[in-house]
Amino acid sequence: MSISLQKGQKVSLAKPGGGTLTRVRMGLGWDAVAKKGLFGKGKAQSIDLDASCLLFDGSGNLADSVWFRQLRSKDGSVQHTGDNLTGAGEGDDEVINVDLQGVPANVVQLVFTVNSFTGQDFSQIENAFCRLVDETTGQEIARYDLSGSGQHNAQIMAKVSRDGEGWSMTAIGATATGRTFQHLLPAVSAHL
């Protein structure tokens, strides 16, 4: 059963029957709003949103990053499946897979961000969401709708944090500005 998260809400990633999740998938989906063309016809536009996963240690230092220019973490526990340049199609447009058991012990938080590489702001994006899926069962665990169109072109979506022996997910939903994750680091640090 999926939980629809609100901004700031936290959910444990412990399995309902006991135990903890071992492999998860963070999916990002979006559609571009059709621009008004000649005679009021909608004209498709191409918007390149990019999902990134930032790995932080217990001191808040960036230990590694996974994004469209580095599709795999140094240790291999986090993998991006590839860059979608348009958002066309149904379901997850970009996917980041995480082997939670393989995440290095010094990494305590995984922060997922999204930014518009092409620079359009979120007022030109619709049906945007991020979701966490249990890779072993294919079941959606949590979903966060990236609603609230605005003049920002990036968002700090969510973080997955070590929580005792397991993990938890917190929906952040903070707006930011930047075309790559490097531009978002000052804004991300406020949520560690």
TrEMBL record:
Q: Which CDD domains match?
A: TerD_like (cd06974)
Q: Which residues form the TerD domain?
A: 1-178
Q: Which InterPro entries match?
A: Stress/Tellurium_Resist (IPR051324), TerD (IPR003325)
Q: Which Gene3D superfamilies match?
A: sav2460 like domains
Annotated PANTHER family: CAMP-BINDING PROTEIN 1-RELATED
What's the name of the protein?
TerD family protein
Question: What is the organism field in this record?
Answer: Actinomadura napierensis
